[in-house]
Amino acid sequence: MVHPVQWILSFKPTAAQLVVSILIAGLGWLSGQALSRVDQDLRIMYTEYTLGAADLAHISADVMRYRNTIIRALEADSQKEFERITESLPTQRARIQQAVDRYAAAGLRVSRSGRSEPEDIEAVRRSLDQYFSAASTTVQLLTQEWTASSQSEREVLRRKAEEHAADNAGPKMIQVSLALDRLLDTVADVAKDMRDEGTRAIQDTSLLLVVGSFFIAFLNLFLSKRRHAAPQDDSAELSHTPSSSVPLPLSNDHTNSLLRSK
């Protein structure tokens, strides 16, 4: 029995075997690279777009919660209740801004249709800053109302706070919602592009595997046929080599002829 190490050391592949092996290895490497790229795109779609879209939905819900807190502050019956309601506003605002910053830190892209995630996220930031500024003015007016010395001054400040919340902060809240909707549409557009790229990569890889497999199989058969044809040609040449039709005399025959002549 031949030892495996000795067999490996004594193995000398032919040129045809080397060509077929290199083609198979190259086809496998190309397919692996394409599938690895698709796997990476799928991970990005999940971590940055599926989870990112969920974060954007949470941002919208948190902004609505912030808006409802302002409305509850307008309806507070006492200063103590007003302070209890408004003490959560800084925490809510920080949570919203952190979610926006976290999404902006991800790999933002531009879709094939021209929709830009960086531009849309900046629009969301601007609209949020404008809304928070207007909401802060409303809270300041309400704070002044509860510290006013006269009832008439309180009524004036209350009316200003209500008008500001309705006429100033309200439209800015709508702008925040519109900016978030545009960003969600852009996220969906970019995710669609990545899905299409992944589908096309899988289709190209499948086609490459099919065509490459048939080509390697044909090449292997062709080279094998040539290897088997070469020994047959050599044996045919040997069989057709011209030889003398007259047999050479044997030594015994030559001796007998000499004796008869004597």
Automatic annotation (TrEMBL):
Q: Write out the ranges of the annotated region (Disordered).
A: 231-262
Q: Provide ranges: composition bias, Polar residues.
A: 238-262
- What's one Pfam family here? 4HB_MCP_1
Keyword set, alphabetical order:
Membrane, Transmembrane, Transmembrane helix
For the Chemotaxis methyl-accepting receptor HlyB-like 4HB MCP domain, which residue ranges apply? 18-197
Which spans are transmembrane here?
15-35, 205-223
How is this protein named in the record?
A: Chemotaxis methyl-accepting receptor HlyB-like 4HB MCP domain-containing protein
Record the organism. Nitrospira japonica
